[in-house]
Amino acid sequence: MTARRPISSAPAPAPNRRLRDAALMAGLIALVAFGLAALAAATGWEETLAQIARLSPALMAGLLALSGLNYLARGLRWHVFARRLGLRLGLAQNLRHFLGGFALSVTPGRLGELVRMRWIARETGWPLERGAPLALMDRAADLAAMGLLLALSVALAAGGMAGAVPVAIAAAGAAVLVTRPRLLAGAVTLAFRALGRAPRLFARARNAARSLGRFSHGPTLGLALALGGLGWLAEGYAFHLLLTAMGADIGLWRAVAIFIFATLAGGLTGAPGGLGGAEAAMVALLALDGVGMEIALPATAVIRLTTLWFAIVIGLTVFPVAERISKRPRHALENA
Question: Hey, what's the torsion of the CAs at 235, 241, 243, 246, to 10 degrees?
């Protein structure tokens, strides 16, 4: 009897690459912190700190709870997609994978999604490319939910936000492309013909695109949109509560629109976690809406702390547990 071949995983980055990525992230974080600090100094540290001091522990707990609701709703969506793909994993396992991936939210190359696929490969025996559609569909569902929520909030916001309409259309369009297997496979083929390189990579991408057909199921897509919309609306509502507590009540739907727009804009920059782009867009949109810098700056810093960085803390807590469990023998995992 031949020995079972071990499940392959992505090779570890070379030391030089790890150092380069670490230096890049450190520089990016320092640049964002320096920019916010410089604006706060120009506005007046006293006013900025006074606004932060006005925030009660109960409010901060509420902001974290609303972020937690977002992660739970999207984790449930991940579970729905995993079951639809055919992964025989329980809810606890899928939540562990989803939340643990947050630890790498601000690392280059979407490593959080890659490590989720590695955990799945170890625990189920599936190759990485077979589980890849799960990450792709999760990203598409986020785009769809955020695009629809942005369009709704722009429509309901007092005075309108015409500048956000193109972003809403682009997000919804990208989601439609990714959730239509034939369209996506055709786009991959066109890209290969244009570049004429890396045929194996494009072949894998085309196979992954075709496998998305499993998700073209009305009830599944409807539930995914509902869970994603609930999650992102919870964080938008948290931003509204924060602004109101600081004395800048611009209305629920304008706050939601600004939050979603800034989050999408940060993602479009390509920076890990939207660092820099999301903060700049949020401060600029608040300023354009008449919110003073003494409020816009601390509000941006606090909401990013209670959303992005809170997710990273959760991820860092879950990551070692998920890594340790994924290394158990597969029969032990199946009987657990």
Answer: -140
| Tally of CA atoms within 13 A in the half-sphere of 212 that contains its CB | 27
Task: Tell me the residue type at 90.
Answer: G
What Cα–Cα distance (Å) separates residue 162 from each residue in 154, 168, 171, 204, 243? 7, 10, 15, 39, 22
pLDDT of residue 242: 96
Residue 333 carries which side chain, given as an amino acid letter?
L
Task: Provide the token pair at 91.
Answer: 């809810």
Q: What is the pLDDT of residue 240?
A: 97
- Domain residue ranges of the chain, discontinuous segments joined by +: 59-179+216-335
Question: Tens of pLDDT along 307-334?
Answer: 999 999 999 999 999 999 988 876 445 5
In terms of phi and psi (left: phi > 0; alpha: psi -120 to 50; beta: otherwise), the region of 246 is: alpha
> What are the tens digits of pLDDT across the range 109-147?
567 788 899 999 999 988 887 888 888 889 888 988 998
Give the CA diameter of the chain. 74
Q: Can you spell out the DSSP letters for 58-99?
A: HHHHHHHHHHHHHHHHHHHHHHHHHHHHT----HHHHHHHHH
Answer yes or no: pTM beyond 0.85.
no
**CB atoms inside a 10 Å sphere around CB 333:** 16
Please return the burial class of 327, using the count of CB atoms within 10 Å of its CB with bins 0-12, 13-18 and 19+.
Answer: exposed
- Are 153 and 253 in contact by the 8 Å Cβ rule? The answer is yes
Whole-number Å distance between alpha carbons of 131 and 121: 8
pLDDT band at 65 (very low <50, low <70, confident <90, very high): very high
pLDDT surpassing 80 at residue 168: no
Q: Which of 266, 275, 224, 294 is nearest to 74 (CA)?
A: 224
Of 263, 272, 243, the closest CA to residue 70 belongs to 263
11, with CB counted inside 10 A (0-12, 13-18, 19+), is exposed
